[in-house]
C-alpha cells in the first residue's frame, strides 16, 4: 500500500473538522426553523423572526445554505406573519 503524503492527511483532518462544524450549524438552523414554524401568536413570531432571518443569512455567508434556498425559506416565513 502506498504511503499518504502529509498534506493529504492534513486535508482529511481539516475536512472532517469542517464537516462537523457545518453539521452542527445546519442542525441549529433546522431546530430554529421548526421552533418558529410552530409559533401560533403573531406577536411572538414578530419578535423571533429577525433572529431567524439573521441565522439564515449567516448560514448563506458560511456556505451552509445556497442563497436561493435561503430566499425561499425567508419568503415562506414572511408570508406566515
Provide a descriptive summary of the structure in words.
The mean pLDDT is 91. The termini are far apart. The chain has 81 residues and is mainly alpha-helical. 83% of the residues lie in helices and 0% in strands. The longest helix has 32 residues. It has a domain of 54 residues.
Q: What can be said about the biggest beta sheet?
A: none
| Shape by Cα distribution | elongated
Number of strands: 0
The helix/strand series, from N terminus to C terminus, equals HHH
> Count of helical segments?
3
Helix content: over 70%
Q: Into which percentage range does the β-strand content fall?
A: under 5%
Report Rg: 18 Å
Low-pLDDT regions: none
State the end-to-end CA separation.
60 Å
By helix and strand content, what is the structural category? Answer: mainly alpha
Mean pLDDT: 91
Amino acid at each position: 500500500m502506498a504511503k499518504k503524503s502529509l498534506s493529504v492527511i492534513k486535508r482529511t483532518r481539516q475536512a472532517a473538522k469542517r464537516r462537523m462544524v457545518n453539521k452542527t450549524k445546519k442542525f441549529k438552523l433546522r431546530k430554529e426553523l421548526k421552533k418558529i414554524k410552530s409559533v401560533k401568536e403573531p406577536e411572538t413570531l414578530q419578535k423571533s423572526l429577525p433572529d431567524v432571518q439573521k441565522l439564515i443569512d449567516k448560514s448563506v455567508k458560511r456556505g451552509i445554505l445556497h442563497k436561493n434556498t435561503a430566499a425561499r425559506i425567508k419568503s415562506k416565513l414572511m408570508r406566515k406573519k
